């Protein structure tokens, strides 16, 4: 005899008590599920970047988004497979069985090979993966004219060091062909390849229009950052007098095939239009706070019937720990409001993490489960009938994740991955990163100068503090 709680619809219905192994869903019968456990559908990390070496570890300290971006130049050169293996393994050990991976490479010539490595890493871990292939043809350092705008804020020697590193972007046709080549190389039913325009401020109109057309023809999904920071809001309002969301709608970019991350600066008319077109919004509360972008109007969007929302870590986590459960808690508390009625219900939060997350990665038919050591979580509780979803929102963390089953495969058992040696992979990745230290040490002064030049450049904009 066993006593297991099966919570298939968290926040909408209580868990069903199972007293016999015969009552377990088929996918769970070979897993390590025992008395005192709770089983629920696995949540989805609906927006991330696959940081095996996390940003703080290579010195990119939290700052305003645009000032923080130059710090990514200090990312150590490591094996893409190993980087992804550690990032995905870190997630799977927390009980998260699927992720949206926004790939970081800006070199189209390496994209196909790197994507193969990333997909292989996901397969070896055993998680579901949506792979957003990066597309851009405008420089990331200064929205209004590219790196030349920063020249007057840099010393002559710093500019001389920076100028040769300014990338030349491949033609639009070449970039789109690379995405199709990645899709052709995908042999896994657990992987979905998507177009990944980095954001409208980093894409020309011609690129955005080409992606919209290609998505309509191929039915391939699109995943994009949108209106993350106040500087982006100011610049996009200048560039698109009709409004960037209206422009995207006019070119056919908005559809149920699109998910947009962040949306911190969205206005009511814009999120109403996104909802009307069936677009999904991915909220990233920790990243938005750590990079000083603000708080997305998630509760207002939900109350107004705006786009359905999902939840993503964006490579951070409140304790820099890639814990999606704590990210859900942060969203729950930040958007609870001050009234007598909570603005976001437990059902809405779990729907975001599970159902909308699955839509973002195109895995609506996923049959994946997380096993939780629920007895340990409620060891001090006096009542046995407290709403399980509320308990999870209040106390759940990676420490209670006991098992993970993805598409019938036991990916994690008792906190250990079943397919790879995570600790060995992490040691090897860190060793690779340390071999790149001489180059990184040489780069650090330039990166600091570039960050401060970026700060000075945006500070000179009217209306920016």
From TrEMBL:
Keyword Nucleus part of the UniProt annotation: no
Domain of life the protein comes from: Bacteria
InterPro entries associated with the record: Amidohydro-rel, Metal-dep_hydrolase_composite, Metal_Hydrolase, MTA/SAH_deaminase
Transmembrane portions of the chain: none
Keywords: Hydrolase
Coiled-coil region(s): none
Domain Amidohydrolase-related, residue spans: 39-335
Gene Ontology MF terms in the entry: hydrolase activity, acting on carbon-nitrogen (but not peptide) bonds
Pfam families the UniProt entry points to: Amidohydro_1
Family according to the record: Belongs to the metallo-dependent hydrolases superfamily. ATZ/TRZ family.
PANTHER family reported for this sequence: AMIDOHYDROLASE-RELATED DOMAIN-CONTAINING PROTEIN, AMINOHYDROLASE SSNA-RELATED
Name of this protein: Cytosine/adenosine deaminase
Species name: Rhizobium lusitanum
């Amino acid at each position: 005899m066993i006593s297991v709680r099966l919570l298939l619809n968290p926040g909408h219905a209580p868990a069903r008590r199972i007293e016999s192994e015969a009552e377990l869903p088929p996918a769970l019968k070979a897993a390590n599920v025992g008395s005192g456990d709770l089983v629920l559908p696995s949540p989805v990390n609906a927006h991330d970047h696959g940081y095996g070496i996390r940003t703080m570890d290579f010195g990119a300290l939290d700052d305003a988004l645009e000032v923080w971006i130059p710090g990514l130049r200090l990312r150590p050169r490591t094996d893409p497979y190993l980087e992804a293996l550690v990032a995905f393994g870190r997630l799977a050990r927390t009980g998260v069985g699927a992720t949206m991976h926004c790939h970081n490479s800006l070199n189209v010539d390496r994209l196909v090979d790197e994507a193969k490595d990333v997909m292989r890493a996901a397969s070896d871990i055993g998680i579901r993966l949506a792979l957003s292939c990066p597309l851009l043809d405008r420089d990331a350092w200064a929205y209004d004219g590219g790196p030349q705008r920063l020249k007057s804020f840099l010393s002559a020697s710093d500019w001389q060091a920076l100028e040769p590193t300014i990338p030349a972007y491949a033609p639009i046709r070449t970039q789109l062909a690379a995405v199709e080549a990645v899709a052709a190389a995908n042999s896994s039913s657990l992987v979905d390849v998507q177009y990944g325009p980095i954001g409208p401020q980093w894409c020309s109109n011609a690129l955005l229009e080409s992606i919209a057309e290609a998505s309509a023809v191929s039915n391939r999904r699109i995943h994009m950052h949108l209106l993350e920071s106040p500087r982006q809001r100011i610049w996009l309002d200048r560039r698109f007098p009709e409004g960037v969301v209206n422009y995207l709608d006019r070119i056919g970019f908005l559809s149920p095939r699109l998910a947009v991350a962040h949306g911190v600066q969205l206005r009511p008319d814009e999120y109403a239009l996104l909802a009307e077109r069936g677009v999904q919004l991915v909220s990233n509360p920790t990243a938005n706070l750590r990079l000083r972008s603000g708080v997305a109007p998630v509760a207002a969007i939900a109350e107004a019937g705006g786009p359905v929302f999902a939840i993503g870590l964006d490579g951070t986590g409140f304790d820099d720990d890639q814990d999606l459960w704590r990210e859900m808690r942060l969203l729950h508390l930040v958007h609870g409001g001050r009234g007598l009625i909570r603005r976001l219900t437990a059902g809405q939060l779990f729907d975001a993490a599970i159902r909308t997350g699955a839509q973002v990665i195109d895995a609506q038919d996923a049959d994946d489960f997380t096993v939780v050591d629920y007895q340990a979580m409620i060891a001090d509780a006096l009542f046995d009938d407290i709403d399980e979803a509320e308990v999870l929102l209040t106390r759940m963390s990676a420490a209670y994740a006991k098992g993970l089953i993805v598409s019938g495969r036991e990916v994690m058992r008792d906190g250990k991955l079943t397919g790879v040696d995570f600790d060995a992979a992490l040691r090897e990745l860190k060793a690779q990163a340390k071999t790149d230290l001489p180059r990184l040490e040489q780069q650090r002064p330039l990166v600091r100068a570039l960050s401060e030049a970026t700060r000075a450049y945006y500070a000179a904009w009217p209306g920016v503090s």
